[in-house]
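Predict the 3D structure for this chain.
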Amino acid sequence: MARKGGKNHVKSLNAPMFYMVRRKETKYIAKPSPGRHTVESSIPLRSFVKMAGLAGTNAEVDRMMNAESLKVNGKRVSDDKYPVGINDTVWAEGIGKYYRITVDTKGHISYEEVGKDDASARFCKVVNKYIGSGGRMMVTLNDGTTMEAPEGVKVKDSLLMGSGKPKVYKFEEGSKCFVMDGVHVGVSGTIKSINMKDKSIKSVTVKSGEAEFETLAKNVMVLG
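Done. Predicted structure below.
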């Protein structure tokens, strides 16, 4: 009989670079549930909790989830394979720990501990804009969130979420940015110029310290 449905794991040797898995120490690694982020840019909540040293075994993760002490972006989740990706925040309220997910210069998942107030806010990139039901203008964010478009927002702009009404940060020269993918992944800088081709934005020149480099516009998220 043919196998129906997808697998809930991947082989460590074939795991995306973002996972930062020790490929020779384990044969399989859990795969995040479908949804918010792509498989290549997220890891399961369970894997992150163990990576951050909040739990050592699956049973300990289950106890944390049953006690409702684990949240993602301030909301409780019940799926231990819930995908967490760049700029998401993981709340371990039972022990008063809060973490922001990011990516390092090798394309591996990274994280930093933040305060509760900082954990309440996060940046999301607008990746699509369209007219929804009732003629409402809608936007889709890089984490899969769909919401009504704030006034004046455009694709490639960023929204600061979690602080009441979303605040728009424009994709323009002089804006602070972070490179999420590509050769220069993990680098922060300032957009020096926006490069056009055939009347559309193709790439940007980013200044980071004394260095300058060009990367695709889709790789850049505005952070201020």
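The chain has three domains: 9-119, 123-168, 176-222.
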